[in-house]
Specification:
Elements: H1 6-9, E1 16-17, H2 20-23, E2 31-32, H3 36-43, H4 69-77, H5 81-89, H6 95-101, H7 105-109, H8 121-134, E3 150-154, H9 158-169, E4 173-178, H10 186-189, H11 199-210, E5 214-217, H12 227-233, E6 236-239, E7 245-246, E8 259-261, H13 262-274, E9 291-295, H14 299-311, E10 315-320, H15 331-334, H16 346-349, E11 353-356, E12 358-366, E13 369-377, E14 390-393, E15 396-399, E16 403-405, H17 411-415, E17 439-441, H18 444-447, H19 452-471
Helix pairs in contact: 3-4, 4-5, 5-8, 6-8, 9-19, 13-14
């Protein structure tokens, strides 16, 4: 293990943010990495617990990809960063993604979180992979022994990318189809650059191409490409298209101009940052000089806040229908599971107002454009409380209330796949097999809206199931 008394001698120390006044002037990442010696000291705090709950142990939700956290903490403490990188990559194809945007359930499950001093696992993970890239330790892993099997993967988000990389390394010929102009899915088009710059995706795509993965971007399966054609040319097809159908707010005034889904707003800005053209028929959605209201209190809502502030919004207010969570969880009731407690994102810190237990009853406007929201407070049962009505000025409303299911029109309906009660593609969490004999599914398209780290796990596990089905065995890790 690390230093036996490290957790007794050293306090938790984590990455800081660059000052808000500086970081809101651009869309670059703003986390300040920890110095190497500080990282080694922080890694030494790992207790090497008898039952390391930072893993996903018996359904207790630590790390979904089962990162061997105590092992690489010890290696970092001892200065063996290259071996730490090998250990980290043995369970996680893309730790630079999770080290930036994962909410770190591993830290919530850390034994030291019982005293609010968890090991800085996420920062250590990110530093390992960043050092690996800097030192040239991340190389293509090319399998020259080809199986002759062809696998088509639809969707190039984290689930599709993880499945593609694993299957290419097993010797299969892998084709990835992405309807957008660049690979990455939600990572590229939904996550703002200030949380994760897209160079991290680009170099992974380059690595995967050298491993033999063929990316077909601007290729919409179920649109301009028939899913039947892919079935005829492939030994297996994996659906990894994500959960793209947003939850709407069907109330009076919804038709007014200036009310948009978050995923119509965020991708536009990501395209501006990268220099990619907007779609020919899309009108620019910009927050500059406007009073912005974000409806929805999750990560997507926070991304809308940070983007709006950087675009020059006059004000940003975030509404959440759920009650305000407690400042601190009851450790004895929640640990080692993910706790419900007040969390303030970096974007919220940059100057957003937050309102809890609020229901929007009506959008009002002038000349066909939204100008205010009619709101009311609700009780713990979400029943409106008479006399608590209030109004919010709004020139731009962004709906960030989550996603209800994958898009079922197009390839899903063409394949006549069975769906679960939430309209996700039906498949169990072991085989990942759909009701079609040649089709598997992974990620949000199967499990519903979830975390990037869960998408990576599902992509890896699905790849193993496909490999085993085609070859009769599999050497791929789960």
């Amino acid at each position: 293990m690390g230093k036996v008394t490290g957790f007794l001698e050293l306090d938790r120390q984590d990455r800081k943010y660059r000052p808000a006044a500086d970081r809101i002037r651009n869309f670059k990442e703003f986390l300040v990495p920890l110095p190497e010696q500080v990282l080694k000291d922080q890694a030494s705090r790992c207790m090497d617990c008898g039952v390391p709950f930072c893993h996903d142990v018996k359904g207790l939700k630590g790390c979904p990809v089962n990162n061997q956290i105590p092992d690489w903490n010890d290696l970092v403490y001892r200065g063996d960063w290259e071996q730490a990188s090998r250990d980290l990559h043995s369970t996680n194809n893309f730790p630079e993604f999770t080290g930036r945007i994962c909410p770190a359930p591993c830290e919530a499950s850390c034994t030291l979180n019982l005293i609010d001093q968890p090991v800085t696992i996420k920062s250590i993970e990110c530093s390992i992979v960043d050092k690996a890239w800097k030192n040239g330790w991340v190389k293509p892993e090319v399998n020259l022994n080809k199986t002759g099997k062809i696998i088509s993967i639809i969707g190039s988000g984290p689930a599709g990318m993880a499945a593609a990389q694993q299957l290419a390394r097993a010797g299969h010929t892998v084709h990835v189809y992405e309807k957008n102009q660049k690979a990455g899915g939600l990572l590229r088009y939904g996550i703002p650059d200030f949380k994760m710059e897209k160079l991290h995706i680009d170099r992974r795509v380059e690595q995967m191409e050298e491993e033999g993965v063929v990316f077909h971007t601007g290729s919409h399966v179920g649109g301009d490409i028939s899913v039947e054609a892919l079935l005829n040319s492939s030994d297996a097809v994996i659906l990894a298209g994500g959960a793209e159908k947003p939850r709407d707010l069907s109330i009076q005034g919804r038709e007014l101009d200036g009310i948009h889904f978050a995923m119509n707003f965020l991708p536009q800005q990501n395209r501006r940052v990268s220099g990619e053209r907007l779609a020919m028929n899309s009108n620019p959605i910009l927050a500059g000089g406007k009073h912005v209201v974000v409806i929805g209190g999750g990560d997507t809502g926070s991304d809308c806040i940070g983007t709006s502030i950087r675009q020059g919004a006059l004000s940003v207010t975030q509404l959440e229908i759920m009650p305000e969570p407690p400042e601190k969880e009851n450790k004895l009731l929640t640990w080692p599971n993910w706790p419900l407690k007040m969390r303030t994102s970096s974007s919220q810190e940059e100057g957003a107002g937050r309102e809890f237990s609020v229901m929007t009853e009506k959008f009002s406007g002038e000349n066909g454009r939204v100008s205010k929201l009619d709101c009311i407070k609700v009780d713990k049962n979400f029943v409106p409380m008479k006399g608590s009505e209030f109004y919010l000025k709004a020139d731009l409303v962004l709906l960030a209330m989550g996603f209800v299911s994958p898009e079922t029109n197009g390839m899903v309906s063409d394949l006549k796949l069975d769906l679960d009660k939430k309209d996700n593609v039906l498949a169990d969490d072991r085989e990942y097999k759909t009701s079609h004999g040649k089709v598997w599914v992974a990620g949000d398209m199967r499990r519903g809206q979830s975390l990037v780290v869960w998408a990576i796990r599902e992509g890896r596990q699905c790849a193993r199931m496909v490999d085993q089905s085609l070859m009769g065995y599999s050497n791929l890790a789960m």
